[in-house]
Amino acid sequence: MKRTAFNDGWQFRPKQNPFAELGGLSTPYTDVTLPHDALIHEDRDPDGEGAVAYFPAGAYQYRKTFTPPADLAGQRIVLEFEGVYRDATVHINGAFAGQRPYGYSRFTIDADRFLRPGEENLIEVESRHGGDSRWYTGAGIYRDVWLHVGPAVHLPVDGVRVSATDIEPDGAVVEVDVIVASTSNRHETVDVAVSLTDAAGATVARGTVPVTVDVNGQSRSRQRLYLPTPQLWSAESPTLYFAAVELIVDATRIDDASAAFGIRRLQVDPVHGLRVNGEVVKLRGACVHHDNGILGAATFADAEERRVRLLKEAGFNAIRSSHNPMSVAMLEACDRLGVYVMDETFDMWTSTKMPHDYSLHFAEWWERDVESMVAKDFNHPSVIMYSIGNEIPETGSPAGGLTGRALAEKVRELDPTRYVTNAVNGMLAVMDDMKKLAAQRGDEGGGDAAGINTLMAGPAEFMNQIGTSPLVTEKTAESFGVLDIAGMNYLDARYVMDKELFPHRVIVGTETFPTRIDHNWALVTENAHVIGDFTWTGFDYLGEVGLGRAHHLAEGETPSLSGPYPWIAAWCGDLDLIGSRRPASFYREIIFGLRTSPYIAVIRPGNEDRTFYAGPWTWSDSIGSWTWAGHEGAPLAVEVYSDAEEVELALDGDVIGTAAAGAENRFKAEFTVPYRPGTLTATAIRRGERAETFSFTSAGDAARLATRVEDGTSEDLVFIEIAVVDADGRVTTSADRLIDVRVDGDAVLAAVGSGNPAPMDSYDGPEAQTFDGVALAVVRRTGPGAVTVTVSAGDVIAPATVLLEELDHLGVAART
Which residues form a coiled coil (predicted)? Predict the structure, then answer.
């Protein structure tokens, strides 16, 4: 069926009580273009829930009028919603047309039976959220909507599936599995023509077979086409092919569809680990949530591609979509850029985590939601495994064994080409048995207090103590037994012991503490059966506020896992909300063996009289800067990350000292340096010889605003990084400014903000405070004309102007 974007012409408003409207109380609709996050624009409540970033609960109404052509008789018309959060209901011309409780599933609505051709039709969508999530979800129609129109005999949505088998250097068999559907009241016979093309557009294989379709039925065509000398897809070489399918009757094409695909061979076993195309691969993984930082939950293809690109540039080669199915746009970006994907189904099964969460719908809807995820993922070579859940309490029970087995077998039935895992948290799996375990610990002389003290001393140690207990071994055996790969959350202490207990078990660290990456990566590299590590998290996200914040405690104060208002972000990402790399990112790059130069991080001064507490998701309270105006003469704590045995630190050439680094010192050396402006240089010392260097030079007074422009691939979004810099262009990290962003021309300001995890500003603009000297403006084009973006910061420093040229076309509907 012909697929066109259906994102324009929508209106939305908060859900209205129809009885109140009869009395004259009503809120008007506002024009919006999808995708749209209805929640990010709401006022936050300081007395609300930190888990959802202090945003309120709510319900929303969307509507769109649509006039289809008058000659649509016999045509198939389908609406595709990539994501509506949550409990979506769809009405067409007042008639109930469909629903979807799960906020992350792609779903379709058969619209033709409700539409009146040649007349104006009304499409209405309602959604609601609140009390249903442990993180920021956004709300409303936050992903793309598509209109599919086709003839009575047609290729339905997801009607083309491509897979490769018998892959050899001189050739591969590509199976193109095509569904042909019919709403005709008689048998129909069509020719299914398939052609395969390479990235340059050259045809490399083609085939045609006739297919007869029953009355109001479906038929399946499977063509096995031989493709000579295939170029294989991998993260290092993400080569894509394209399959084009046509339905032909009497030499006339009546319908068509296409799909990108990759050819790659997956193998996994406990001796070799994970192999892609015969080569051993260790997954350098990042967990991510679905929001796009200052854009909220709105899923723009350009923003998804930017996230994937920045994560790969930071050293990651794999992404886990936590804890819900990944967007189509991000999958496409992973295909193009070369990133492996673990796509995840649910954060809960039947056991509730929040009062109104998906567990209330799981029993009725899980199969359809699994079908939706697999249908979405099947043609994407980046997807190498499915996760059937995250930290599911039932995994420690026989009932959980039954549910897990049903989920795993459903996935295998739908897609036998990928592996199945489950992100199991051993402590949560035996939560109901914790009293029994505490009693066992008491028998050993520790009592209940021992567990509490251990937890306060370090959650990582506590989780591992629980996770390696015989109780967890016994209780999780069935849940792990249904999987191809055992996914373990915060269970690194099981990696080696399970090699003896379960010699056929392959393990992946589905979620790990970022502060333990040196320890965990050594386990990954030293053990073939451990195939990778997924840190929590790669990119900072909204909600679970302050999970990774540094605590500076006054006397008598105790740490908290949740930050107070105005905290908005978790602050545990290697990259912050706008994609800037934090010190932990450079440390991880060194651990992965991808960086030889040292890196310098300086602890923020000003809290020396307080006790520092860091949880397991917390990096040091540091930034990469040697600009600390106002702290001249103060002793600053400096961290230098390096894989070299030693590092030397010097200020303007004067050596401050040499300290041990490398693996034996957790790849970190520490110095105390009285601050004065200058150039701070770290030098790696390898086998007694000076090697790689890295420097920061202090910035002078703020002189102007500098901008750096990133155009999105689809030409829908433009990202403008804004920095407060001195006369030489150095970022003045200690001179934040309130900036004002104005957009003139064929565009609107989609968002403006910074990486600050606790901002006072909203992201609506036009004003925002920089953070460590940097902010980001996101401009959304509304037409092909030229655009002028003006950024100012009062009268003290020079403003900046960005000119965006005219487009030959507007690429907002370019994704296919």
Answer: none
Question: How much of the chain, in percent, has pLDDT values that exceed 90?
Answer: 88
Contact 291, 307 (CB under 8 A): no
Q: What is the pTM of this model?
A: 0.96
The rounded distance, in Å, linking the Cα atoms of 369 and 404 is 15
Q: For strand 279-280 and strand 107-110, is the pairing parallel, antiparallel, or unpaired?
A: unpaired
Q: DSSP assignment of 193-230, as one string? A: EEEEE-TTS-EEEEEEEEEEE-TT-EEEEEEEEEEESP
Please determine, looking at this structure, whether the domain spanning 273-539 carries the CATH number 1.10.3720.10: no
pLDDT for residue 456 is more than 60 = no
For residue 74, what pLDDT is reported? 81
Distance (Å, whole) CA 389 – CA 646? 43
Strands 635-641 and 599-603: antiparallel
Domain boundaries, the chain: 2-149, 160-261, 273-539, 594-624+628-697, 704-813
**If you search the block for the tokens 């000659």, which residue do you land on?**
71
* pLDDT at site 448: 39
Lowest-pLDDT choice from 135-144, 357-366, 443-452, 764-773:
443-452
Instruction: Please give the CATH architecture assigned to the domain spanning 160-261.
Output: Sandwich (2.60)
Residue 454 has pLDDT above 60, yes or no: no
Angle at which helices 447-457 and 459-467 cross, to 10°: 130
| Identical fold, 160-261 and 273-539 | no
Does 810 have pLDDT greater than 80? no
| Whole-angstrom distance, CA of residue 640 vs CA of residue 734 | 21
**Chain Cα centroid distance, residue 191:** 40
Superfamily of domain 2-149: Galactose-binding domain-like (2.60.120.260)
E-assigned strand segments in 151-306: 153-154, 160-168, 171-182, 188-197, 203-213, 218-228, 241-249, 252-261, 266-269, 273-276, 279-280, 283-288
Q: Quick one: pLDDT at residue 385?
A: 98
